[in-house]
Amino acid sequence: MAIATTTNAMISSQNIIASVEFILKSGKEIVNRQMHAFIGRFAFFFTLFLLASLNSAYPKTQSKGPTCDSVIDQASSIIVQDSKGRTLISKNTNHFFVPASTIKVLTAFVALKTLGEDYKFHTLFYIDSQKNLKVKGLGDPFITSEIMNSMAEKLANSIREVNNLVLDDTFFASNIYISGSDGTLNPYDSPVGALCVNFNTASVVSKNGVYKSGEPHTPLIPYTVNAARQFNITNGRFLIARTQEETSIYFGQLFQEFLRRHGILVKGNVIKGAVNSTDTLLLNFESPYTLSYVIKEMLKYSNNFIANQLFLVSGAKAFGAPATLEKGVAVTKRVADAYIGMGDFNIVEGSGLSRENKISASQFLKLLQVFYPYAHLLKERDGVFYKTGTLKGVSNRIGYILSQNTYYPFVIMRNGNGPSSAAVLDCLKRKLGIGVSSHRARAQPEAVKQAKVSQTPKTLQGQSKKKKTKTHKTDKTNKRPIKTEPAS
After folding, report:
1. Strand (E) or helix (H) holding 314
2. In whole angstroms, what is the distance from residue 204 CA to residue 158 CA?
3. Pairing between strand 133-136 and 165-168?
4. DSSP type of residue 435
5. Could you tell me if 189 and 182 are in contact, meaning their C-beta atoms sit under 8 angstroms apart?
6. What is the per-residue pLDDT for 8?
7. Residues of the chain below pLDDT 70
8. What is the value of pTM for the model shown?
9. In angstroms, rounded to a whole number, what is the distance separating the alpha carbons of residues 206 and 452?
10. 335-350, pLDDT tens digit by residue?
11. Cβ(80)–Cβ(432) under 8 Å?
12. pLDDT digit string (tens) for 82-93?
């Protein structure tokens, strides 16, 4: 077509020359050689103009990017089924891969089956014969400044003065180390503990060396200022409790300030200790948050701290205190066998930080088949309920594609180089002809809607994977490697 058009253009240029000559002759003009030369040049350049126009109208074919088939083929492992259990596409479904944060879906399922959807965490307050106030933590991962303020407010109804503030964190075994956690000041490296507040983080702002709290609901205490100065933190959120021991200390220091604000004087010190059978229970504080709400926030923000708290508490619920990683592994295996039939897999912690965790796509698919009643707890975007899992060289995604009132469970695992799991998912939807649907999973349970604190605490929002945080180095005496990749 382009050749024919070019030929027509050349014929048209010849006609133009003839027309010009005819006009000149009919006017009885004397045409000399210079004029003929001018006409020739005119025709030549006019033809070049037409050819250039044709080139722009018919550009050369551009090379295309990778096809969807090649993108899908680069996934390490993949499986998609329809709601009737028919496999639509599969690859390496029985090979084991590092799950990263997709393992949080299994952690959530185990907690739901072990503790119950409407379970609420408790924190216990005792007074002993020496008028010491004792706090016994039971692993609540969602104690925030607002919750701590409520605790102090309730205690003010029964006490006005105590000697020491005693912290009992024996519900967790000591020195629990999460594999894959590298001891940085980034919130995703948070340690676990029976007594924790604000996800073991603090937020500060400073100007001319003067510090202020980075959030209005959290008072600034000397402990926070000292930590910020020690690690040269001038603005932003950082991990203030870097060890399990420090989690309780930070809890106690901050709680002492809330007690003071509610008129309760602590005359002595903040110390570690244990509750005795002779101590008197003052307050059994119940969290306003249900387990379903906690899990939804954990999955939304891919919070490693919450995931491992649930992992440990589930183990303690099943096998008794103190909570240990071994008990968390045992209850996970037991629930996976009883409810899912997953077979053998490897798990050492519940957040996905560790590369020792290994699981196959077919096992994840079995999990998704029983997790569907809880699909509303997953993050949702464009008709897909999903959980991602990301480490260096790892890009995974599991969940459900909802289309025309039908759900399609899918597992995408990529360990190594290749396209992202998001790109693979997009190609899967195109290849299978399934897209966005107005259908949604069932609404949140009423217990979640009626939680006393309805908004997500800013302390948790600050730990979102998408919120990039500066990696702060620890003090040189620790000699711990610097973390550069959160599990998400």
Report:
1. helix 304-319
2. 33
3. parallel
4. -
5. yes
6. 46
7. 1-65, 435-488
8. 0.80
9. 32
10. 999 999 999 999 999 9
11. yes
12. 989 999 999 999
